[in-house]
Fold each of these.
Amino acid sequence: MRSNKGTWLLLAPGMIWILLFLVAPLIMMVYVSFWTQTTFSIKPDLTTQSWVNFFSSDTYFGALLRTIRIWLTVLFVTLVIGYPVALFIGQFIKNKTLQTALLVTCVIPFWTSFLIRVLAWRPMLGKEGAINIILQKIGFIDAPIEVLLFTELSVIIGMVQIYVVFMVGPIAFMIGRIDESLIESARDLGASATTIFRRIILPLSMPGVIVGSIFVTVMVLGEFATASALSGRKVNLLGNIIITQVGSLKWAFAAVAGVVLTVVMATFVAIMLRIVNLRNQI
Amino acid sequence: MDKVASLKWFLGIFTALFVLFLYGPFIVMGILSFQQGPEGGPQFPIIEWSTYWYQHVFGIAPPSRVAPLPIGEALFRSLSLAFATMVVSTVMGVLTAQAFRSQFRGSGVVFYSVILGMIVPGVLLGLGMALLANQLGIDRNWWSTAFVLHVVYTYPFAFLVMLAIFNRFDTSVEEASLSLGVSPARTFRKVTFPIIFPGVLSAMLFAFTLSYDEFPRTLFTGGSDVTMPLAIYGTFAVEIHPNLFAFGVLTTLFSFALLAIYGILLTVSTRRQRAKASGLQEDIS
C-alpha cells in the first residue's frame, strides 16, 4: 500500500489541469451570464437582464424547446436502432473475433473528420441525391422527396447516423458480458426466449443503455455543426444560438444559453447516474 | 427454438442494413470525389470520372474559381496540436490511473471530475475558456487556450483506458520486483511499463485522433490561425465542392495508416513480450 501522499502527488497534475481549464471556465460562464450586456461589450455589473431576455424571447425559448425535441427524438431513434444491433452483436455472434470485427466496422467511420461526415449527407439526401435517385430508379416514388434535405428531418438523420454507435457500443459490451451459463440454465428450467430476454438480458444490459444515453445526450445537446450543415441554417439549436451570439459579441447572452444547456444536460445525467454507478461498470 | 433462429435472421439483416446506413454517405462521398472538375458539383450524376479534385487538394490542378483548401499550414497546426495533446494527456492519464490502484478517500469525486472533461460539450467549454481568456487578457491561440482544452477532452479517455488496463493487472509481479529490492522508479520502467504498454498505445491513439478532429472546443479558443477542422467548417458557409470529398477520402486513408501503425506496434510489442517470456522459461528449465 502506497502512502496517501504519493497518491495525491500522482493525482496533482490531472486535478490542477481540470480545475484551471475545466472548472474555472464553467464557473466563468455562469458568472458572465449575469453581466451587463451593451451593444459591443460586457461589463461586470451584475444583472439578470440577459436571463429575462432569454426566456421572454420566442426565438430563444423556441430554440430551447426545439433542442429538447430534437435531442429526445435522436435519443429515442438511436436506442430503437441501436439496441437490436447490439443484441445481435452481443448475443448471437458467439465468435469473439467476429464480434470485435463487427464492432470495429461500426467504429471505422469515426476515423473520418466529423465535419466531412456531416457534409457527406448532402449528396445523399438532396433533391437529386442518392436516396431519391435510387428510389426513383426502382419505381418506388415518381417525384423526388424534397423534405429529406434542409429540414429538421435531415438534421435528425444526420445526428442518428453519427451518434448511434455510442449507443451500440456500451449495450453490446454489457450484453456480451452476460454469463452464458445463466441463459443456459434459464433455458433448461423452461424459460421461453421472451422471458429470458425480459428477465435476464434486458436488466443486465441496462447499464449499457444508460451509458449510451448519456453519451448521445451530451453530444446531441452540444451540437451545432450538423444543424447548420444539414438544415441550411433553418434549424437553430441552442448550440447555434451560442455560435451566433459569440459572433456578434453578445457574450453574456451566449453564456445564458450555455448555462441553460448545462442545466438540462446535468439534470439528465444526474438522473441516469442515480440508476447506475458508472465506476463499477469498467 | 425456431423463434430464436428466425429472430437471429431478422437481427442479422437489421444489422446489415445498419452497417449500410453507417457507410452510405461514405460510399457516396467516395464516388463523388471522382467527379469531373472544375465544373462538376458535389452531386449526381457524375459528368465524367476524373481525379481533378484530388489534384486540387494537392494544389497541382490548373487554377480555377474554386479556392484551394488551406491545407499546408492548417494541417501542420492540427498535427502538432494532436501530438502535444497526445503526449500530455497520456502521461496524465497514466499517472491518474496509477493513483487509482490504491484506495483513497474522495476517489469518487476525482473520478467524476476527470470524466467531466469528456462529457461537457465542447461549445460550452470553448465559450467558458474564451470568456476566461478575455477576462485575464490572454490571447487565444491554437497552441495555448485551444491546447489546454484538447487535453481536458482527451485526458479522460486516456485515464479510462489505463484504468481498464490496471484493473486486469497482476500486481504480484510488481510486488516481486519491489521485494527483491528494485527501486519503485526502476520497477515502473522495467516491470509495470512493458505490461501496460498496449494500453498506453491505445490511449495515445485515442488522444491523437480525438484532438486531430476536435472542433467545437477549438472554434472559440483557436484564435485567428485555423486548424484543419476549422478550415473545413469555414467552407460550410460558402458553396461546397467535391474537393472536400476528395480531402475526406484522403484523411480517412491517413487514419487507416495510423491504425495500421498502431496495429503493427501492438503486434511487435506483444511478440517481443512473448519471446522474452519464453526465453525466460527456457533459462529456468
Note: Strands of chain A lie at 36-37, 42-43.
Amino acid sequence: MNDQHAAAPGDIAEVEMRGIVRRFPGVLANDRVDLRVASGEIHAVMGENGAGKSTLMSILYGLQRPDAGRILLRGTEHSFGSPVQAIAAGLGMVHQGFKLFPSLTVTENVVYGSEPTRRGLVDRATARARVAELVDTHGLHVPPDARVADLPIGVQQRVEILKLLYRDARVLILDEPTAVLTPAEADRLLAVIRGLARSGRTILLVTHKLGEVMAVSDRVTVLRDGRVTARLATAETTPAEIALAMTGRRIDLDRTHPAGTPAADVLEVRGLTVSAGRGAKPLVENVSLTVRAGEIVGVAGVAGNGQSELVEALAGLRPIDAGRVLVAGRDVGDASVQQRRRAGLAYVPEDRATVGAARDASLADNLAMGFHRTPPLAGRGGFLRRAAIREHAARVIERFGVKAASSAVTIGTLSGGNQQKAILGREITHDAPLLLVEQPTRGVDIGSIENIHARLVEYRDAGHGVLLVSAELSEILALSDRVLVMYEGRIVAELPRAEADVHAIGLAMAGGDPTRSAAAADPDAGDDASSTAPTTAHQV
Amino acid sequence: MSFDAELIFSALRALTPILFAALGGALCERAGVFNVSLEGTMLIGCFAAVTGSWFGGSVWVGVISAVLAAMVFSLLLAIGAVTLGADAVVLCIALNLLAVGLTGFLLRTIFGKQGTFGDPDLKGLQPVDIPGLESVPFLGRALSGHSPLVYLSWVAVVVIAVLLSRHPWGVRLRGVGEAPEAAQSLGVSVARYRYAAILTSGALCGLAGAQLALGNVTLFSENMTAGRGWIAVVAVMLGRALPIGVLLAGILFGLVEAVGFRLQGEGMPQQAADAAPYVMTLVALFLATRSRARRGAAAPPGRLTGRIPRPRRFARTTSESQS
C-alpha cells in the first residue's frame, strides 16, 4: 500500500522503530514492524484488538524487549530496559487504566518521584508553581490543589498528561485515550492533543476509533496480525480505507438497520426512582418508559446521568425506592435477579470483566451461567452435566463467532471483543423477551462491533425487546427505533427514529442548553461525518 | 478516684509501648502492608532488651539489642510478604506465635527460668527529670521523670508526621501504599519502600519492647506484651494511620489502662481492671467501623473509576484496563 513518508529523505524522525519482531508462544505479535514518526506529528497507530499495537508501544516504552529490531529517537539508537529509562529519554505514556494516587493532590501526583526539595523537604510552593505553569501553558484546566479522587475522569486524564509534561516528555504515547471519556471530554482531549503537537511535541495515538483519527491525526500506521498493512496520510485517506486495512475486508461504517415492527410491551417502567442516600439528589428520578417486543430503545446521555443506575435497578442489582417495573407483564419491583430472569429478562452489563463474567472461570462455565439450574445442563439432583455444558458452549461459540482456542480456556484470556461476543451470546441464548444491554461495544474492535450490532438487530427482528444504553451516540443512532435521553437522572427527551439526530440528542444530553449542544455531540457520531469536517467538529 | 498528675503520668507511661508499635504499624499501613505482627515483634524486643541489658551490663545495650532483634524479626515479614509475595496477615499470625514460643524457649535455655526472669541487678531505664519542667506544679509531676524512651516516642510522632507529610520519602511511601503500580511506573521501587517501612516498624516495636521490659517494669515474663501490639493495631485503624491520630488513639488506651490500675487500688476487682483496655478496644473498633461506614455512605460515589460502585460486586478489580 501507500508507503511514502511525510519526512523528506535525510530528515531525522523523532521516533523510528525498524524491523521490530516480538514473538509470544504461538503468536507473532509484531512481525518486522517499521514505524516512523516525524517531530511534531500526531501519528495514529491503529489496529483491531490483538493486531499488535499495544505490544509495539510496550516495546517502545521499555515494558517489553523486542526479539529483533531497533529503536531510534532523533537518530540515536536506544534500548530501554524499563519505562524509567524511556521516560529519561523523553518518552511518556498515558495508559488506559490511569496510574494515579487518588488521595494525593494533583500537584503531588505530578511531581511524585521527582519532587523539588528545599532543605530536605518537599518544596510545595515550587512544585505547585511549576504545575500551575504547565497547566496554563498547555490550557489543561486542572486545579493543582484538588485531590485526584475528587476529579472527573477527563480531568484525571489531563493529570496524566501533566505528569509527562513535567518530566519533559517530547513524545507522548496515548493508549486508547478516549475509551473512558464522555463525548465532550473526548473533544476537549483532542483539542489538548492538537495544542501539544503545535508546541512541538510528538503524539502517538493508539486507538481504534476512526472518527478521532480522522479528526486529529496527521498520519496513520495500521497494523493487522502483527504486520503493518498501511501507512497513510490522514488528509489523503478515508475511514473506509483505514477500516479495510485494519480488518482486511470491507466494513459498512454507516449502515443503518431497517426499523423494527413493535408489538406488545415487554418492559413497562412507571415512576422509577433510585435514591442516592439521605439528602442527596436521586440517581434516577421518576423515570417512565416502555420497551415493546420488536424494537430497540436506545438510552443516550453523558455518562453518569443515571443510565447505569437505571439499568442496574431494572436488572435487580440496585434497590428501587419508588415506582413499578413490569417485565413481560409481571411486576418485578422487588424481585430477585433470578426471579426477574424467570420473568423474561436477560442482561449484558457494562462491566464485562467483573459483572458480566467470572474472569478466572472457563469460557464454558461462563457460558453456562444462568442455564445451570435447569436441564439440560443440570441433571438429576441439580448436579451439573459437564458434557452438556461443553455442548452448550460449543453451540454459543459457533453461533456468535467467539474466537477461542477451546471452551476450556479462562474467559479473562480472551480479547475484549471476544469476551463481549461470548457474554452477548450467552444472554441472547436465554431467548428472553427483554434484553438489557449496556455499552455493548466499549473497547471492542470495529470488526466485532459490526457483528454485535447485527446480533442485536437480529434479536429484535425475532420479536424481542432491547433496551440499549450506550455512550456512543453513533451506536444509539445506528440501532435504535426510539431514543430516550437521560440527564441528571431524568428522561428529558424521547425521540422517534426519524427525529433522532446528533444535534437533537446532543442538545438534550447537555440538559437542553443550546450553547452546550455542540460540545455534547459525539465526535464519532457517524464516522463519516467527522471525516468531512475534521477540523470543525472538535473545536470546543 | 481523683484525676491527678500521677494518673496522667502512668497513662503516658502505659501509652509509650503502644505508641511506638502503632507508629510502626502506621508506616506499614501507609506503605500498603497490613502489619499485625506488632505484638510478636514487641515481645521479641522485650526479651532482647532484658537479655542485652543483663549480659551487656548496660541498659543501652539492652535498648539497642531490642531494636536490632526486632528488626531482624521483622525482616522475616519483609522477605515473606514483599519478596516472596506471601499473604502478610497469615505471615504475621505465624510470627506472633513464633515470638511467644521462641521467647519462652530462650528464657528457659538462656536464663534457666520459666515464666519470669527478673533480678535486682538487671539494669532498667532511669527516669529523666526535665530541668525547669519538673518544678512546674501538676505538669512537672505528669510530664517530667519519665524514661528517655517516653520522650523519644513523642519525638518519633513529630518526625514521622513531618516525614509522611513533607519529606519526599514519606510522600513516596504513601504513594507506594495507595497505588503501587503508579509508583512503579514513575521509577519508585515499591519493594524498597515496603522493606524500609517494615524494618522501621521493627525498630519501633523494639523500642516499644525495651520500654515495656526495662521502663514500665524491669523484668521479662512470658507473653508480657499481653495484647499491647494488638491494641496498637487498633490504634492504627482508629487513628487512620496518621501519626497524630495514632497518638490520640494511644492516649485513649493509655488512660484506660492507668484508670484501670487506679481503680484496682481502690478496690475494683483485678479482673475488671485487666479487662478494661480490651473492652475499650472493642468499643473503639465498633465506633471506628461505624464511622467508616457512615463516611463510606457519604463519600462521592466511585469517582476515581468514573462509575458508581455496584451494590453487589462479584469480584474486585481496580480497573478494567486490558479490554
Note: The first helix of chain A runs from residue 53 to 60.
